[in-house]
Amino acid sequence: MEIPQWSEALASIKSLKLRILIEQTLVAKRVICDHINSVDGILNVQIDKPLLLSVKQARQKYERYLENERLKKKLLSHKQRENVFSMR
C-alpha cells in the first residue's frame, strides 16, 4: 500500500520541479529580451569576458548532463539485458 503513495509523491515532486524549471526559463528569456530591447537591438549587445565565461561554463554543464544521461541509459539497458538473461 505504501508504494503507490510514494510513487504519487515522487510524481508530484517531479511535476513541481518541472513547473519551477519552466518558470525560471521564462524569467530568463524575459530578462534577455528586456536587455536586448534596452540596448536597441541584438547587434548592440556587448560580448565581454564574463559573458563568454558564463556561456562556456553553461555549455560544459550541459555537456556533463548529456553524458550522465547517456550513461544512465546505457546502464539501464545493460540491467534490462541482465534481467532477461537471468530469467532464462
Keywords:
88 residues, mainly alpha, 2 domains
Poorly predicted ranges = none
Average pLDDT, rounded to a whole number, is 90
Instruction: Using the alpha-carbon principal axes, give the shape.
Output: elongated
Mind describing the biggest β-sheet? Answer: none
Number of strands: 0
Helix share bin: over 70%
Measured between the Cα atoms of the first and last residue, the distance is 30 Å
Percent in strands: under 5%
Give helix and strand order, one letter per element, not per position.
HH
**Class by alpha and beta content:** mainly alpha
Overall radius of gyration = 21 Å
- What's the number of structural domains? 2
Task: Report a brief summary of the structure.
This protein is 86% helix and 0% strand. It has helices at 2-38, 49-87.
Layout of helices and strands, plus pairs?
Layout: H1 2-38, H2 49-87
Account of the protein in words:
The chain has helices at 2-38, 49-87. The chain has 88 residues and is mostly helical. It folds into two domains: 1-40; 46-88. The mean pLDDT is 90.
